[in-house]
Amino acid sequence: MCTNHSSIRCIIPPYMEDKLKDSSNLALAKNAINSKFRSYRFRSDREFFKGTNEKEKTVLGAMSARKTATPHAKLEVYNCKKGTDLSKATLLWKTGSTKKPTDRDAKNVIKAGTDTWSLYYELFHRNSIDNLGMTIKQYIHYDKKYDNAFWDGRRMIYGDGDRTIFGSFTSDVDIIGHELTHGVTQFEANLDYEMQAGALNESFSDVFGIMIKQRALNQDVKKADWLIGENVLLGKKYALRSLKAPGTAYKNHPDLGTDPQPATMDNYQNLPNTENGDWGGVHINSGIPNYAFYVTAFNLGGFSWEKAGRIWYAALTDTAHLLHNATFVDLKKITVTKAGELFGANSLEVKAVKDGWAAAKV
Q1: Catalytic residue among 178, 188, 283, 349
Q2: How crowded is residue 62: how many other Cβ atoms within 10 Å of its Cβ?
Q3: Burial category of 262 from C-beta neighbours within 10 Å (exposed 0-12, middle 13-18, buried 19 and up)
Q4: 122 by DSSP, 3-state: which?
């Protein structure tokens, strides 16, 4: 039975937070505890929006009142000025403003927000997060040294990072694309945030986040590094996650240890469905469907969004078959079916999808 946990979909997973809050470095521990506390504030918001109907979402600004006649990216950027009261944040920039902001973080979120909107619209004909032209609202400079970024159900919020372990959470387009994709998932499959469904929720965000990054950089599957958050996690050898080789994004980090993600089902981590167990390992086991997508896209060659991306988007938006409590096997079946519908039952694309899931041992 689904318990609909209200765990917030942050880019920094609990296993990283726990390492830092238990650190012998008191400054790091104090900041990690504060960052974790601040994240809790938004848990009820996310869970509330998960259960609201369209009218309620519209009234609360979590969904557009009506479909935009002429689709175009609409963004707003707010400056929290290191405060935690979002109602006091000041509007820094919005689409149509004649003067561009000089703030680097504002520039980052404008660029990445536009890149995200463009991928969804130009490739999949999706008009913003809700497919109705929703304004993408982004709040920068949240709190002091806040180590996270997240979608709270109706807007994006970014911390500046502690500048010791993490830099600004606006530094990576894939992180911004990842979190905004949680919004897309919210409006589509609305996957539960627990067990394998929760891991799929995280994986969809990584998959689309990495495609947004690769498209912004015009990288094909062979040239791309397949790393998420390589600028946010400070140090040339480190990134938050790797789709190409889950478990290798960071190794022997002096404060975080080694990336715990498995790439295949034989290393699946049967964690308890509790907060301390990351609700069944949603951030850890997401490495498995991530790897299946990587292998699929790599074997198909070219740009990841041209074929593999189309298949995964078709699966995400097939709400008749991708249910809220879907498993890895469910997504495997759906992606194979979608590949056949898009490219033919006996196509190379179907074989690539099957080979991707086989490589992940699903």
Answers
A1: 283
A2: 23
A3: buried
A4: helix
Residue 358 has pLDDT above 50, yes or no: yes
What is the C-alpha separation between 307 and 175, in angstroms, rounded?
22
- 3-class SS at 158? strand
- Determine whether 86 is exposed, middle or buried from the number of CB atoms within 10 Å of its CB (0-12, 13-18, 19+): middle
Q: Which of 179, 194, 202, 349 is catalytic?
A: 179
pLDDT digits (tens, 9 = 90+) for 97-133: 999 899 999 999 999 999 999 999 999 999 999 999 9
The chain-wide mean pLDDT, for the chain, equals: 90
| Angle at 121 (CA atoms; ends 135, 292), nearest 5 degrees | 110
Q: What distance in Å separates the CA atoms of residue 362 and residue 356, rounded to the nearest whole number?
A: 9
Q: How far apart are CA 217 and CA 55, in angstroms?
A: 38
Six-digit token pair at 316? 């995400």
Residue-range domains of the chain with CATH: 14-187 (3.10.170.10), 195-359 (1.10.390.10)
Query: Is 178 annotated as catalytic?
Result: no
In the predicted structure, residue 200 carries a pLDDT above the cut 60: yes
Higher-scoring residue by pLDDT: 351, 39: 351
> What is the pTM (predicted TM-score) of this model?
0.90
**Percent with pLDDT over 90 in the chain:** 77
What is the per-residue pLDDT for 2? 38
Task: Supply the angle between the helices 287-300 and 195-217 in degrees, to the nearest 10.
Answer: 40
The residue whose two tokens read 């911004």 is 176
Contact 123, 305 (CB under 8 A): yes
Phi/psi region, residue 131 (left: phi>0; alpha: psi -120 to 50; beta: rest), is left
According to DSSP, the β-strands at 156-158 and 136-140 are parallel
**What span, in angstroms and rounded, lies between the C-alpha atoms of 322 and 172?**
29
Pull the structure tokens for residue 349: 């694309």
Residue 162's alpha-carbon distances to 27, 29, 30, 79, 166, in angstroms, are: 10, 11, 11, 18, 6
CA dihedral over 92, 137, 126, 351, signed as positive or negative: positive
Active site residue 283: yes
For residue 149, list its beta bridge partners: 158
